[in-house]
Design brief:
Largest sheet: 7 strands, mixed
Low-confidence stretches: 1-8
Mean pLDDT: 96
Oligomer: single chain
Bound molecules: pyridoxal-5'-phosphate
Shape: globular
């Protein structure tokens, strides 16, 4: 059962924490402080229970079975599609394609839409703060097609240079693919503005919502993006789950990505015809159990309310920024005005990796390194950062533990 936290006035973070079994464990003899939420969030008991329930009671392959278990499994799987439709305000359930994650979603677009539509001399635009999964598929496509990849730079605060974007975009631009929220800087990008500009020259826009979907209210119709991708594991859901949303006419016009069962209408050696969307893009047995359980992650978030989650996380971000700013040997990387609860920083003369190892000895899980954004790190002239990223279950007390841990690191290593 999900605790109906939404009925309470204040967000009761301790009751929320109680729903996450892993948060009560110790690491190296210290209570776990989990600040690696941008990499993956922990899972509430309802999600874990949904997985156990599926395997214990109605595990079956979906869509083609006529027996009861197959029908129950299919119904549960398709219920998640309805939940996604609501969560991102998609116009129809047919526009929701299940993938393994944001990476697969972007690759699907690059292979299917990209190989059908991109020609020699065309231009694609991404930004300098993209995750590698929103760089490499486009580089591969450009290499194959002789197209040109252009990059929107960002300023010192980590905000996109929209003036430069205005100069890069032209009738040659066929696709713009940008991250909604940067995983290494926390910047929230002005995607609506980007989409409007891109559409004015006839380009389509892919929004990488891997980091934004858990924090921000997503309305793909209002945003008017052509594609939107995200991963379930970053929003309290199971690993191996993801979503690709696309505009109907685009999805319908695109060739399949993978061939196999489920994605066909009829197969013969003479000619194979393909299934309707979204099944055209869901070849083979999908990740049924995890996608079934993903629905309970949406239920969990909805039961609290995104606004309240955001308020709590923003409070944590403000508190952490204030506390970290007081450490003279520390520099925050990424100071955009519009930011969500990701805070990256470096310490004078201390390698992020060494700091991460010492923090782990105090039970604190942070991410260190380039965060799969090497070009972004290069702009700052650093190999990587220490990154703390917050979720609904984190507390100010945990930030105090981090600050104490950092003082210890500085004392030992500088
Ligand atoms: C901004 C961004 N895009 C894409 C991804 C890729 O997500 P996944 O590895 O779940 O496919 C991540 C993961 O960290 C991310 O932060």
């Amino acid at each position: 059962m999900i605790t109906p936290v939404a009925l309470q006035e204040e967000l009761d973070v301790y009751s929320i924490r109680n729903q996450f079994p892993v948060l009560s464990r110790e690491v190296k003899g210290k209570p776990l402080v989990y600040f690696d939420n941008a990499a993956t969030t922990q899972k509430p008991q309802v999600v874990i229970d949904a997985l156990v329930d599926y395997y214990s009671n109605y595990n079956a392959n979906i869509h083609r079975g006529i027996h009861s278990l197959a029908e129950e499994a299919t119904a549960a799987f398709e219920k998640t599609r309805d939940a996604v439709k609501q969560f991102i305000k998609a116009p129809s359930r047919e526009q929701i394609v299940f993938t393994r994650g944001a990476t697969e979603g972007i690759n699907l677009i690059a292979y299917s839409w990209g190989r059908q539509n991109i020609k020699t001399g065309d231009e694609l635009i991404i930004s300098a703060m993209e995750h590698h999964s929103n760089i490499v598929p486009w580089q591969m496509l450009c290499e194959e097609k002789g197209a040109v990849l252009k990059v929107i730079p960002f300023n010192e605060a980590g905000e996109l240079r929209m003036d430069v974007f205005g100069q890069l975009i032209s009738p040659k631009t066929k696709l713009v693919s940008v991250v909604h929220v940067s995983n290494s800087l926390g910047t929230v990008n002005p995607v609506k503005q980007i989409i409007e500009k891109a559409h004015s020259v006839g380009a389509i826009v892919v929004v990488d919502g891997a980091q934004s979907t858990v924090h921000l209210d997503i309305d793909v119709q209002d945003m008017n993006c052509d594609f939107f991708v995200f991963s379930g594991h970053k929003l309290y859901g199971p690993t191996g789950t993801g979503v690709l949303y696309g505009k109907q006419h685009l999805l319908e016009s695109m060739p399949p990505f993978l061939g196999g069962g489920e994605m066909i209408k009829e197969v013969s050696f003479e000619k194979t015809t393909y299934n309707e969307i979204p099944y055209k893009f869901e070849a083979g047995t999908p990740n049924i159990a995890d996608i079934v359980a993903l629905k309970t992650a949406f239920d969990f978030i909805n039961s609290i309310g995104k606004q309240r989650i955001r308020d709590h996380e923003n409070e944590l971000l403000a508190y952490a920024t204030e506390q970290l700013d007081m450490i003279p040997q520390l520099k925050i990387i990424g100071q955009a005005k519009e930011k969500i609860s990701v805070i990256s920083f470096i310490l004078d003369n201390i390698h992020p990796q060494d700091a991460g190892i010492l923090l782990d000895n105090s039970g604190i899980a942070v991410r260190t390194g380039h965060h799969c954004t090497q070009p972004c790190m290069k702009v700052f002239g650093i190999p990587g950062t220490i990154r703390a990223s917050f979720a609904v279950y984190n507390t100010k007390e945990e930030i105090d533990v981090l600050i104490k841990g950092l003082h210890k690191v500085i004392k030992m290593l500088s």
